[in-house]
Design brief:
19 strands, alpha/beta
Length: 387
Amino acid sequence: MIYDAIVVGGGPAGATAASDLARRGLAVALLDRDGRIKPCGGAIPPRAIQDFAIPDEMLVARATAARVFAPSDRTADMPIGEGFVGMVDRREFDIWLRERAVADGATRHHGEFASLAREPDGTVVLSCRDADGEAFTLRSRSVIGADGARSAIGRAEIPGSARMKYVFAYHEIVRTPAGQDPGCCEVHYKGDLSPDFYGWVFPHGATTSVGLGSAVKGFSIRTATARLRGAAGLAGAETLRREGAPIPLRPLRRWDNGRDVVLAGDAAGVVAPASGEGIYYAMLGGRLAAEAVAAFLASGNPAALRGARRRFMKAHGQVFWVLGIMQRFWYASDGRRERFVSICRDRDVQALTWSAYMTKELVRAKPIVHLRIFCKNIAHLTGVVSA
């Protein structure tokens, strides 16, 4: 059988792409290996719940506030106000996404990608291996690579993919003890927990995700996670799972090979700098990749594949650029982290932060508020205002 598209990777990006293509009536294969769980705080904004029809039963918790910790242990409480941020457990969430893709018409293949070749007529041939090491092949007119930050598809087909920069993320899922606030996400900006990123303690109902990320070689993430658990009162909590994976720092400059392959999700680098948020952007990237592939299949023009990156960056490139600057500046030292948390106490900052996060749109209609925030940032940067 020759599929219209093979999607490699069954996380939020790949499963979304497979669902969307199958609903268009195309023949889709979804290739994914079992047992892979990505470390993730699990936060999904209302925009994701709405755009991708995520049912209430997938939400293990509803966060209504964040508490931000400075190196000095001073805090900034950031209540959301109206609404909530949904929390999912990736172990269950990713399985549900793959099952939905199959229900929509995709054919699931259990295994992992090994190599790619092409037949004389241009048909893509994927050589794969199942869990027992047995080889099998899949044939298709196109491929979506949604196989993570170290994408094998990307390295094989997309120039520059092998040079992707990333942080390594690690978390531990622990049993939530009595008395833990079920609606508050903790974010710890402390150099001893992460010299270049942050630590998190996110509620998942009966469990809690405790983790952090760093790109600094030689930094002991597990040791730092133990410190974070101690600071959060979770040192004695039962550990249920430990998971780690690379998380990309910025989108790749190119997502397609100009022929028949396009990337999505972490493989394309679509994790927001500074915040590390990835689920919404992965699902959006999967949807845009599916639309680009559908346009390519309908027209036969490989240039259509460029549309996935072009449309994503038009919608979110400016936000990623701003967040990248924030990460490089504010996370550079504990002194700057202290000032960053101080800024987070500002009500104007909180209102615009939550509005942008919840809707995934820049807030442009409040020039006076933006001016006030700009002046406050300058005051903190120059030391006019103390942390």
